[in-house]
Amino acid sequence: MIPDYKNGDFVVILRSPFCIRRFKIGDTIIFNHIHYGVLIKTIENILPTGELFVRGKVENSLDSRRLGYVHINSVIGKVIWLIGKE
Questions:
Q1: How far is the C-alpha of 21 from the C-alpha of 61, rounded, in Å?
Q2: DSSP helix/strand/coil, 66
Q3: What is the largest CA-CA distance in the chain?
Q4: Residues 9 and 30 sit within 8 Å (Cβ to Cβ)
Q5: Which of 75, 84, 62 is nearest to 11 (CA)?
Q6: Paired strand residues for 53
Q7: CATH superfamily of the 10-83 domain
Q8: Element containing residue 14 per DSSP (H, E)
Q9: Across the chain, where does the E strand assignment appear?
Q10: Given this model, what pLDDT does residue 12 score?
Q11: pLDDT tens digits, one per residue of 48-59
């Protein structure tokens, strides 16, 4: 999610099941995608079925516009702190 997250940065995530079930729009999450591996994106919409519409920061980012909705069970954690390399 350039420009906020750069290659080599570290993030601290919250993995508690209690917190993962309490997402809100604007949260940044890390999730596993079957074809693309681990991705970090921002939640733009939440469906009652537990599916998340995620977006990247860049216009042509790989996000739910191409991936489809992300199911809550594929979420690894919620980003709570960015530790920048620089």
A1: 25
A2: helix
A3: 39
A4: no
A5: 84
A6: 45
A7: Umud Fragment, subunit A (2.10.109.10)
A8: strand 10-14
A9: 10-14, 28-33, 37-46, 51-55, 70-71, 75-83
A10: 84
A11: 998 999 998 888
pLDDT in tens, 23-45: 899 999 999 999 999 999 999 99
Which pLDDT does position 29 carry in this prediction?
Answer: 93
pTM, two decimal places: 0.81
Given a cut of 80, whether residue 84 has pLDDT beyond it is: no
DSSP category for residue 54: E
Structure tokens, 50: 């537990």
Q: CA–CA separation, 16 vs 78, rounded Å?
A: 9
Domain ranges of the chain: 10-83
What is the token pair recorded at 19?
A: 């917190």
- Determine how many CB atoms are found less than 10 A away from the CB of residue 57: 14
| Three-class secondary structure of residue 69 per DSSP | coil
Please state the length of the chain.
86
